[in-house]
Design a protein that fits this description.
Elements: E1 24-29, H1 37-50, E2 55-59, H2 67-70, E3 100-103, E4 106-109, H3 123-136, E5 139-143, H4 150-158, E6 161-166, H5 170-185, E7 192-198, H6 204-212, E8 219-222, H7 226-232, H8 237-240, H9 245-254
Parallel strand pairs: 1-5, 1-6, 2-4, 2-5, 6-7, 7-8
Antiparallel strand pairs: 3-4
Length: 278
């Protein structure tokens, strides 16, 4: 099957769509490795899904994709299946050839289990696939490799939202400037810059360095040892640890694009509310 024959189809599963979020392509990137790009992408996708959106998380890191590991998924179907001319599988929807269902309304298109040369996936295939996904999901969240592969380039060009991730250290922040340069060169949307793995009480120096580099930080995400633990269990942090500072930070980021579900706003314990006496 090729991307061309994959006509838009009915909703892939029963989660009710919300037109306010329809078809947003959120691209998550860092020019420097190990800063938490995959972690942020997985948790943005999970947080959007928790707000009732039909989400597809796409792993474009063909060389070393980690989404399957982060969510403990078996990469039986992968993005490379978009190239298959025919398939023996009985599929109800064209997307079934590609997707892995995490739960209803939360699907992934995984990178191959074996490290693969990105050249095996022709660039024009992705240029067809992303608009197709946009037409059948409320949000398409794309985890990208550090390299400016043809696929990263296509993702930048088709992004509605570009999230650049950094950690609060000089070398990572310098990497951030590479990401910013890439976004300008490709005419991508103005990036939302996320500072990940921020220790509480730390940070003004990082803010100062960022300002010196001409970078404005939109959201800071807490460093939390539970991130690794939830990852080892194959769970997104926002689901495993809904009351953690990390989850609050991701929620603040996602608030920029998707409203919270009514009734899901966090309720502060009564005794901590100002003016409340028990
Ligand atoms: N906020 C955080 N607090 C604590 N640990 C974190 C946080 N964000 C990410 N990590 C940890 O940092 C490590 C790298 O995260 P991740 O794989 O998401 O980075 P990456 O930028 O995608 O890396 P790569 O370049 O290999 O693709 C993981 O062990 C992850 O658990
Ligand atoms: Mg990664």
């Amino acid at each position: 099957m090729t991307a061309e024959v994959m006509a838009p189809s009915v909703a892939p599963d029963p989660v009710a769509p919300d037109s306010a979020a329809a078809g947003k392509v959120v691209v998550v990137h860092s020019a420097k490795g190990g800063v938490g790009t995959t972690t942020v992408a997985v948790n943005i996708a999970a947080a959007m899904h928790a707000r009732g959106r039909r989400v597809c998380l796409v792993d474009l890191d063909l060389g070393c994709g980690d989404v399957a590991v982060a969510l403990r998924l078996e990469p039986r179907n992968t993005i490379l299946d978009v190239l298959a001319d025919d398939t023996d599988e009985e599929v109800e929807e064209p997307i079934d050839i590609l997707r892995t269902i995490v739960e209803p309304g939360f699907n992934c298109i995984l990178a191959p289990a074996q490290s693969t040369d990105p050249a095996e996936l022709p660039g024009d295939v992705l240029a067809d696939l992303i608009p197709y996904l946009r037409s059948i999901y409320d949000a398409v969240v794309i985890d990208t490799p550090t390299s400016m592969s043809v696929h990263t380039r296509t993702a930048f060009e088709l992004a509605d939202v570009l999230v650049l991730v950094s950690t609060p250290d000089v070398s990572s922040l310098r990497g951030l400037t590479i990401g910013l340069d890439r976004s300008i060169a490709l005419n991508a949307p103005r990036p939302v810059v996320v500072l990940n793995q921020v220790e509480r009480g730390e940070g003004m120096p990082a803010e100062e360095i960022a300002a010196g580099l001409g970078v404005e930080i939109a959201v800071r995400i807490a460093r939390d040892p539970m991130v690794a633990r939830s990852g080892n269990r194959g769970e997104a942090m926002v689901k495993a640890e809904p009351n953690s500072p990390f989850t609050s930070d991701i929620d603040r980021l996602v608030d920029r694009w998707v409203a919270r579900k009514k009734g899901t706003a966090k309720v502060r314990p009564l005794h901590r509310r100002k003016g409340f006496k028990l």
